[in-house]
Amino acid sequence: MSSFNDVLKKSFSNLPIFFHNLQRINPNTFMCIKKDSYNRFQFCFVALGCMIRMFLTYMILIIFVGHVPLIGTYITSMYIAVALDGNHELLLITFALGTINCDESWVWFMRRLKECLGDSTEVGFISHMTKSIYFAVRRVYPDSYHGYCCKNIAEKIQDSTISNTVVEQLLQNEVNGNDLHWLDNIVIAKWVRAFFPLKHELPITTIIQMVHDSMQGVYIQRATFGVNFTGEFHGLLTPYALKVLQKRFIHSDGCRVRHIVGDRYDVSKYLTTEFVQLEDGICTCGKWQKCGIPCDHAIASLQRLEIEEIQQMVNLKLTTAVYQNTFQIETVNPIPILMHWKYQLKVFSSYLHDNLLEL
Ligand SMILES: [Zn+2]
After folding, report:
1. What share of the chain is helix, strand, coil (3-state, %, to 5)?
2. Do 258 and 248 meet the contact criterion of CB atoms below 8 Å apart?
3. CA distances in angstroms from 247 to 103, 159, 244, 295, listed in the order given
4. Strand residues in the chain grouped as ranges (E)
5. Distance from the CA of 297 to the center of ligand 1, in angstroms?
6. Whole-angstrom Cα distance, residue 359 to residue 353?
7. Element (H, E) at 23
8. Ligand 1 center from residue 343 Cα (angstroms)
9. How far is the CA of 274 from the centre of ligand 1 (A)?
10. Vertex 154, ends 113 and 225: CA angle to 5°?
């Protein structure tokens, strides 16, 4: 009878065939295994095709990256990249499992991420302030924005009553230096534990299966949520975007507007004056272009418009129509049952042998 340790080891040698089956049913899925010079497992990287498409097409291109320690002999680290969907809820883009958490492992993770997203995709990164992540982002994405996250900001992800969107605050780097709490202890770790309750050491294929199944559940749940969107404004915007817009609509009351020419305005509030260009969707405060929701100043410039009309100016990624379509079109397909694996095992036996991992 095989021991649990044998089961754990066997799951590594099963990994290539497991990946093959997962990939077969989830088109354009990107997977990768890294071994060391002794042919021992170091890392694996997983990005389901639907997650990559979802991010590139329907989400604001800001990625939260973080590390979660796992209990285990062989797998001790989970690397996570998540982003916010149109309703500002976290959604997994990619993850990796591996042994050590160091500069080299982060560079490897960021390189695989870049391969998935394409060289020309411009993304911003938010993470906790560790040297390894900073190093990797600078190395792989030298021109990208890299901000940091703290507890106050992280908590606001849950708080839909704020007027600034979470991403805006992160991009403005509104971090209180005395109150830094690492992102992996706040957002990502909390999120990972809620979605993938990994309390014991498990075979690597089981961990991946759990993450996969959990994501399948999230996609189904959000598809159902999207169908049920209702609202006093006919549900044009996602609940989150609508709340932000309503708050800004109220705040725009305190602005003094001076028309310059055409679609251009100077808007003063308190002691600051911002410059708005309506047709280009630009305000010098930066909020509109960063998050796709018109800021107080832009709304004030549109003072003759009703909120229903201003909704048309919000980025499409934050509309209910896109949200609903997204989660209808993109689904996480179930991994084939073991019976089908066996057949594949025969076909790919030579491949498997070549990739046999020694631990
Ligand atoms: Zn503004």
Report:
1. 50, 20, 35
2. no
3. 42, 13, 5, 10
4. 30-35, 41-47, 62-69, 77-84, 90-98, 124-127, 146-148, 256-261, 264-269, 272-277, 282-283
5. 4
6. 15
7. helix 4-25
8. 60
9. 6
10. 75
The model's pTM is 0.81
Kindly give the distance from the C-alpha atom of residue 269 to the centroid of ligand 1, in angstroms, as a whole number. Answer: 10
Output the pLDDT for position 163: 46
Q: What is the pLDDT of residue 259?
A: 92
Encoded amino acid at 249, one letter? F
What integer pLDDT is reported at residue 258 of this predicted model?
Answer: 93
Residue 158 CA to ligand 1 center (angstroms) comes to 24
Distance 75 CA to ligand 1 centre (A): 47
Q: Which of 167, 156, 179, 141 is nearest to 287 (CA)?
A: 167
Tally of CB atoms within 10 A around 211: 21
**Residue 311, burial from CB neighbour count under 10 angstroms (0-12, 13-18, 19+):** buried
Q: Ligand 1: distance of its center to the CA of 156 in Å?
A: 20
Task: Give the Å distance between the CA of 293 and the centre of ligand 1.
Answer: 10
Give 121: exposed, middle or buried? Use CB within 10 Å, 0-12, 13-18, 19+.
middle
Cα 305 to averaged position of ligand 1 atoms, centre (Å): 17
Could you please report the per-residue DSSP string of 266-329?
EEEETTEEEEEETTTTEETTSHHHHHSS--HHHHHHTTTS-HHHHGGGS-GGGBHHHHHHHHHH
Ligand 1: centre distance to CA 263 (Å): 14
Q: For residues 184 and 128, is the Cβ–Cβ distance under 8 A?
A: yes
In angstroms, the CA 56 to CA 123 distance is 10
Q: What pLDDT, on the 0 to 100 scale, is given for residue 169?
A: 54
Looking at residue 296, what is its pLDDT?
92
Q: Are 326 and 50 in contact (CB under 8 A)?
A: no
Q: Which is it for strands 90-98 and 256-261: parallel, antiparallel or unpaired?
A: unpaired
Regions of the chain short of the pLDDT cut 50: 150-154, 156-157, 160-163, 173-186, 232-233, 342-343, 345-359
Distance 91 CA to ligand 1 centre (A): 28
